[in-house]
Amino acid sequence: MTQESLARHARSWYGLPVEIVIEGDYWHWVKAGPVPLPHPPVVNLIVRHGLPRDARLRLSYAHEMGHIQTLPLALMHLAWVWQHRPRGQGVSLWRRLAWLAGLAVVHQSAWELAAETYVLAQNPAEYTRSYQEARGNPAPWFWALMALLALVGTFALRRTQHTTEE
Ligand SMILES: [Zn+2]
C-alpha cells in the first residue's frame, strides 16, 4: 500500500471511546463511540500546508482528538446561542433559515478554534517552532478567521432576539 492508513484508539476525558484513522492526506475517519464521522480534512489540509509529513500527521491526529475532547464545550456553546434563536409569529422562514445557516458557520468556527487550541496546548513550543519553520503557512489566517467568525458571529446571533419581539 502506498497510501498508508494509520488508526489510533483513544478515550475522551468524559469516557467516550474514539478511533481516529487518517488515510493518506485526503480522508479522515473519526469514530466517536458507535458513530462514524468520516470527513475530508479541510482544516488539516490547509493549516498543515508546508509542514514536514510527520509533524503534519501528528498535529492532524491531535486536531481530530481535540474535536472529541472539546465536544462538550462546543455543545454548551451551541445551546447557549440557541436560546437566542429568532422566535414568534412575526419571524419569516427566510430569517429563521439565515439564522440557522449563521449558527452552522459560527458553531463550526468555534469548534475548529477549540480543537486547534487543544493542539497548541499539547506542546506550545513544538507548535510555534513547526510553524516558524514552515514559511508562508496559512495558520495565522486560520486562527484570525476562526476567532473572528466565532466571536463576532456568536454576538451577532445572540443579538437577533431583541429585534424579533412582537
Ligand atoms: Zn477541525
Kindly summarize this structure in a few lines:
With 166 residues, this protein is α+β, with helices and mostly antiparallel strands. The chain contains 6 helices and 4 strands.
Task: Explain this structure.
The structure is a single chain. The protein is an alpha+beta fold and 166 residues long. The protein has one domain (5-163). Helix content is 60%, strand content 15%. It is built from 6 helices and 4 strands; from the N terminus they run ββββαααααα. Strands 1-2-3-4 form a 4-stranded antiparallel beta sheet, covered by helices on one side. A hairpin with a 5-residue loop joins strand 1 and strand 2. 21% of the residues are buried. Residues 43, 63, 67, 112, 115 line the site of zinc ion (ZN).
What is the approximate shape?
globular
Unreliable spans: none
Distance between the termini: 63 Å
Order of helices and strands: EEEEHHHHHH
Secondary structural class: alpha+beta
Strand numbers in spatial order across the main sheet: 1-2-3-4
Estimate what percentage of residues fall within beta strands.
15-25%
Overall tally of structural domains: 1
User: Are any ligands bound, and if so which?
Assistant: zinc ion
State the share of residues found in helices, binned by percent.
55-70%
Q: Got a strand count?
A: 4
Number of helices: 6
Q: Please state the average pLDDT score.
A: 85
Radius of gyration: 18 Å
Largest sheet: 4 strands, antiparallel
